[in-house]
Amino acid sequence: MSRAGTIPASSKRLVVKIGSSILVDETQGQIRRDWLEALTGDVARLHRNGCEVVLVSSGAIRLGRTYLKLPAGVLKLEESQAAAATGQIQLAHAYQESLARHGITVAQVLLTLDDSEARRRYLNARQTMGTLLGLGAIPVINENDTVATDEIRFGDNDRLGARVAEMISADTLILLSDIDGLYTGDPRSDPAAKHIPEIREITPEIEAMGGAAASEMSNGGMATKLMAGRIAMAAGCRMAIADGRPVGALGAVIDGKARCSWFLPEASPLSARKKWIKGSLKTAGSLIVDDGAVRALSAGKSLLPAGVTAIDGEFRRGDVVDVKDRRGRVLARGLVAYAAEDARRIVGRKSVEIEKLLGFRGRDEMVHRDDLVVE
Questions:
Q1: Could you count the other beta carbons within 10 Å of the beta carbon of residue 338?
Q2: Of all helices (H) and strands (E), which one includes residue 100?
Q3: Pseudo-torsion of CA 258, 262, 266, 270, nearest 10°?
Q4: pLDDT at residue 216, as a whole number
Q5: Domain-located, residue 200
Q6: Could you tell me how far CA 318 lies from the centroid of its own chain?
Q7: Which residue, of 235, 269, 303, is where some domain finishes?
Q8: What local confidence, expressed as pLDDT, does residue 9 receive?
Q9: What does the pLDDT read at residue 76?
């Protein structure tokens, strides 16, 4: 394991969460343009070096309330949603304009809690973001405050960032906030509070160090960052809490020049994902495969429709299924890319025939190797 300050150099897929209080000037209610230009310059550097970057950005409501001339203080739900609708346009345009100077395309993705928990929505969001990254675009993500109500809200972008990192199997999550990490106490009121540079397990003692939000513009305090850390670490994703207020904050973290707290998991994103698949107590069905597919699986390859001879059970896309040989022996377990009804229609057929048989172009694999655990 590298030293904590140099870890981002090895990152292949990075999620950066940007707090409202560091992106938007609190007194003016406008984007800090010099800060944003520095951020996008650092993102462009990562992009050129082959790192896929996703931005989870707060700030829409704060910007929107400025343009709608809403008064200071706590907003009503409908006022917050109206502000979000207005501010999202301003926020997306600012990122688009700034990243365009580096020749980078931006895509806006709005999510609710349901999108990270309902299996079909989760898979759709995961696939969309994966496709955008594969095409060289940078997704800018925020909570869909315009339609989200309390029961389907994340409530803060710390947890949203962690859910996105989990969703796309990111290896690194950086929370740019108004504090440079986790302390043994609240450093604003406790001068004896000590900074904690590395956390390898979120214990009850660590959880007790969580505090409240620092300002009206921020929904998340240290408690939500610890929740985000728990989500990220369970997904095999390392996470940093860093002070994002200085211009060039992301670059300082990348170069190991910023003090921050790193939450370091034992597993990698892929191994954590496969551990979850293997640990599923109940499978939704089975795929029976031929001898050629058995050899392909043992060589670490994906399972193609051509190698499947029969389908057993009724399952939905994204469910965990067993992969069995002709004698019924379980060879592997994985997340199936097609619902049972569609899977039966493409059994034994070549991947190039899928679109003609189903009427849409799905994945070439019945189970991709990244979603497959061989016994």
A1: 24
A2: helix 77-100
A3: -70
A4: 35
A5: yes
A6: 17
A7: 269
A8: 63
A9: 87
> Helix, strand or coil for residue 311?
strand
Task: Order across the sheet with 320-324: list the strands.
Answer: 308-312, 286-289, 320-324, 330-335, 372-374
> What is the Cα–Cα distance from 301 to 317, expressed in whole angstroms?
20
Q: Which tokens hold the place of 188?
A: 């604003």
Those residues whose C-beta lies under 8 Å from the C-beta of residue 339, and which sit 6 or more positions away, are 315, 316, 317
190 lies in the same domain as 217: yes
106 in the same domain as 55: yes
**For residue 174, what is the domain's CATH number?**
3.40.1160.10
Residue type present at position 163: R
Q: Calculate the CA 127 to chain-centre distance.
A: 12
At 290, which CATH number? 2.30.130.10
Helices (H) and strands (E) in the chain, counts: 14, 15
Its domain, for residue 327, covers: 279-374
Determine the Cα–Cα distance for residues 197 and 183; give it in Å rounded to an integer. Answer: 9
Q: What is the pTM of this model?
A: 0.81
Concatenated DSSP letters of 118-159:
SHHHHHHHHHHHHHHHHTT-EEEEEE-TTT--GGG---SHHH
Q: What is the pLDDT of residue 5?
A: 46
Query: Which residues have CB under 8 Å from 222's CB, separation 6+?
Result: 179, 182, 209, 210, 211
Residue 244 lies in a domain: yes
Buried b (16+ CB within 10 A) or exposed e, 291-303: eebbebbeeeebb
Which DSSP helix (H) or strand (E) runs through 68? Answer: none
**Per-position DSSP letters for 279-300, written without gaps between them:** T-S--S-EEEE-HHHHHHHHTT
pLDDT of residue 114: 73
CA gap 289, 163 in Å, rounded: 34
DSSP 316-348: -TT-EEEEE-TT--EEEEEE-SS-HHHHHHHTT
Query: Is there a domain that residue 274 lies in?
Result: no
Q: What is the mean pLDDT of each run of 10 residues along the chain (375 residues)?
A: 51 94 90 97 95 94 91 86 91 96 96 75 88 96 74 70 92 94 88 93 88 44 90 93 96 93 89 79 91 95 96 93 94 94 96 94 92 89
CA atoms 363, 10, 372, 167: torsion sign: negative
